[in-house]
Design goal:
- This protein is mainly α.
- 48% of the residues lie in helices and 4% in strands.
- It contains four helices and two strands; from the N terminus they run H-E-E-H-H-H.
- The protein has a two-stranded antiparallel ribbon.
- Strand 1 (90-93) and strand 2 (96-99) form a beta hairpin.
- The longest helix is centred in the N-terminal third of the chain and has 65 residues, at 18-82.
- It is flat.
- It starts with 17 loop residues before the first helix and ends in a 32-residue tail after the last helix.
Length: 191
């Protein structure tokens, strides 16, 4: 198997002066503004399309709801004849399947609060039906590992290989909502 040739990254022409860096930052700010505008325009267009879709769907949804009610009433009378006296629960008619089906089971708490039921079940020794979720409290661990010198808990946490990891990241953020002018135009007084 032959090794693939290494490709060099494209060379970057880094600015050499503050003026060049200022111009690049102004260009970056302009790109940010244009990208934000494109996203805003797209979001507005999507919202407009979704609004039109909802307008077209509303009468269809209302019509389907009416038809559903009518067919449910009809099915109560017609089902025994169409399902061989209940041997089947549904039938196919006109490209639709109509009938009854069993829903996915859900737990009914009988009007009780889940927290109260948990306490009663634990008290009665039914912990097998109680789920306990264990998770790391990352904020507490980070706080303990950030204390210098490490206290006992911090020392114990490091013995498990836990540590704080941070790095310096390069960033460019917008300084204000509107980018500052990038160019000063001097005017000459007409004499």
């Amino acid at each position: 198997m032959s090794a693939r040739p290494r490709r060099k990254a494209a060379s970057l022409d880094a600015p050499q002066t503050i003026e060049q860096a200022t111009q690049l930052l102004a260009d970056y700010a302009l790109c940010l503004t244009q990208a934000e505008q494109i996203r805003a325009d797209a979001d507005a267009a999507i919202a407009e399309i979704q609004s039109a879709r909802d307008g077209w769907l509303k009468p269809l949804d209302e019509r389907m709801k009416t038809i559903f009610g009518q067919l449910r009433t009809w099915w109560a009378v017609a089902a025994p004849h169409l399902t061989d006296d209940g041997k089947r629960r549904s039938v196919e008619i006109a490209g639709c399947i109509i009938g009854h089906r069993t829903s996915t089971p859900r737990l009914d708490l009988g009007g009780a609060k889940a927290e109260d039921l948990v306490q009663m079940l634990l008290r009665d020794g039914l912990q097998d039906v109680i789920r306990t979720k264990h998770d790391l409290d990352k904020q507490t661990i980070l706080r303990e590992l950030g204390r210098l010198p490490l206290e006992e808990l911090g020392e114990r946490l490091t013995s498990y290989g836990l540590s704080r990891r941070q790095r310096d990241e390069f960033f460019i953020d917008r300084a204000s909502e509107k980018p500052a002018p990038t160019e000063t135009i001097e005017t000459e007084d007409a004499a």
